[in-house]
What does this fold into?
Amino acid sequence: MSILQKLETLGLVLPEPPAPGGNYVSVNIRESIAYLAIQFPILNGEFKYQGRLGNDLTTEDGYQAMKMCALNVIAQIHHKVGFERVSGLNHIDAYYQAVENWDEAPKVVNGASDLFVNVLEDKGLHSRAIFGVHKLSRNFSVGLTASFTLLH
Amino acid sequence: MSILQKLETLGLVLPEPPAPGGNYVSVNIRESIAYLAIQFPILNGEFKYQGRLGNDLTTEDGYQAMKMCALNVIAQIHHKVGFERVSGLNHIDAYYQAVENWDEAPKVVNGASDLFVNVLEDKGLHSRAIFGVHKLSRNFSVGLTASFTLLH
Amino acid sequence: MSILQKLETLGLVLPEPPAPGGNYVSVNIRESIAYLAIQFPILNGEFKYQGRLGNDLTTEDGYQAMKMCALNVIAQIHHKVGFERVSGLNHIDAYYQAVENWDEAPKVVNGASDLFVNVLEDKGLHSRAIFGVHKLSRNFSVGLTASFTLLH
It folds into this structure.
């Protein structure tokens, strides 16, 4: 089953991959690793889920926001590499903006982790780091960086 | 000398590797790199060194907390990969929670760096990044992410 | 054209690569990847651009600070690896300290991105992540981590 078919069975549609917001590339392939630029909850050009978790946004909002970041990661790989070349997801770094005493980050980041595992199965297994930052660009509540190993 | 013997000569005991707190894996091997999930100062299931450096915790506490994170990194590799397969440590990202004017992070992160170099010697040499985050999960004072290159 | 000649045509001089401020190495080569430790806006031993963006420092200051970090990355690779061995830049993680409502981070990080692309051309293409941290060591306004793929 192709990624697009798999997404369809999950009721998901691949968004347009967001364009870079600076002098960098969204996907950088060096030897057998594809490095991705940070992805935000942007849906076909529209900024979503801006604000602070625990104040402007709930944990469920955060989960959906992280899922949207992960869909953008998948869209970037689909458009610029193709999943037939992918051996597997390596690691994700997940960033969030929250109020001081909010502590639901692991649940929120499962929005990305669940999507990767559901869509890519064994190729979607990954390690991850999560931390609450002071600020993300454009006041996005969450952001996500990933890298993939490619087949030779 | 094995890792366990080396730890013993240093008066250290390997803790149980902490289980993942979400839909990810603690160690993800892709080709010749082992990517680790963020490790916290958890000792056999018990959360340690929670709070903010410079307020709830001293620099010496932070050093011990980082050493505990590094021991968990070593425990993860020992249990899931084995050091006979390890070519060397690559890079560590070290995160901490501190009060505004506290500036002892390099000393604190040496708690991890010293351990890696003492236990793994040349294989423990690494580059590192350190930054003070807004918040870590479960109010941990420090966290640590690492990757290792494996032998073919 | 060598890196030094290229820098000269751009009116730039390579600084002394900063020494590590702890028990780590500035450049760690494992197989075909060179991992770099975080670089700060240090010019030949002198700390520059300390403070918070949007308060003590302007966006243009931040751009110059990021450019200085990138020059230190280039200096580290030049002195410890040599650009004849470099296949290309992989990814950069850019960190900054700013006041709450400051949102010019992509422009600031272009200070590093522009330099890499101008000096290294195709070998300088990279993906990137940016996030506003709570605090950087020595009150530096910005910091930069990078890795490079080496030729076999």
